[in-house]
Design a protein that fits this description.
Number of helices: 7
Mean pLDDT: 93
Radius of gyration: 16 Å
Distance between the termini: 42 Å
Oligomer: single chain
Strand order of the largest sheet: 3-2-1-4-6-5-7
Low-confidence stretches: none
Structural class: alpha/beta
Largest sheet: 7 strands, mixed
Helix content: 25-40%
Order of helices and strands: EHEHEHEHEEHEHH
Length: 220
């Protein structure tokens, strides 16, 4: 099995804007960079992956990706997560990947063992594994076999879109609930949930944990 991970990462100045007044612009930038670095490091520990492709238009993120041993695809248009994911899928196909794992750069609690188990469960034939966020409406991961079996369509309520796209493509659909990938960060409530998860598992996300230590806690 040749599987590559694709990690679309926004420009840092545009990241985490929905945290709004609860987190300063400087802290949001630092948090986005830390989360991306932690996700890249976690993916690097997944035995079933042949490599990681980071898609970004941000030079600092490209340096972070290179330090983690990831390949970088430039996202010159910066047209959003779905468009960036498509660039990564194209690179994965060019490299001969049979599977593409799409994950966001803001799930720093990612557990390599959970991802390894997900990859180990892939069977022959066209399939889409959809990993929902903690609310059950968004998508925090897609395992695509082959990588272009459907076009990614991230954003609000993307879970239903991905399931429907897979069905239209005639692919087998699997809903996979990976606790460590359920925790992305868009809102103050998400940040509270992430803090709680990191408090229970102190061995993960060291960079994110370090940044959060300097960010005041707020109610969801």
């Amino acid at each position: 099995m040749t599987a590559l991970a694709v990690l679309p990462i926004k420009r840092l100045d545009a990241a985490k804007g929905r945290l709004g007044p609860t987190v300063s612009a400087q802290a949001r930038r630092a948090l986005a960079a830390a989360m991306a670095a932690d996700v890249l490091d976690a993916l690097g520990q997944v035995g079933g992956l042949a490599g990681v492709i980071a898609v970004t238009g941000e030079s600092e993120v490209a340096r972070i990706a290179a330090a983690a041993g990831a390949e970088t695809v430039e996202d010159a248009r910066d047209a959003g997560q779905s468009a960036a994911a498509q660039l990564g899928v194209a690179r994965a196909l060019a490299r001969g990947a049979r599977h593409a794992l799409l994950v966001p750069g803001d799930c720093p609690a990612l557990d390599p063992a959970e991802v390894e188990a997900l990859l180990a469960g892939v069977v022959a034939g066209a399939s889409v594994a959809v990993i929902p966020d903690r609310h059950g409406t968004g998508t925090n991961g897609l395992l695509l076999t082959p990588p272009d079996v459907i076009a990614p369509a991230f954003g609000p309520n993307s879970f239903d879109r991905h399931v429907e796209a897979a069905r239209r493509a005639g692919a087998a659909v699997h809903v996979e609930r990976l606790p460590s990938l359920a925790l992305d960060v868009d809102t103050a409530g998400d940040l509270v949930a992430l803090r709680a998860a990191l408090a229970e598992s102190r061995a993960v996300a060291p960079r994110t944990r370090g940044v959060l230590a300097g960010v005041p806690s707020d109610p969801p």
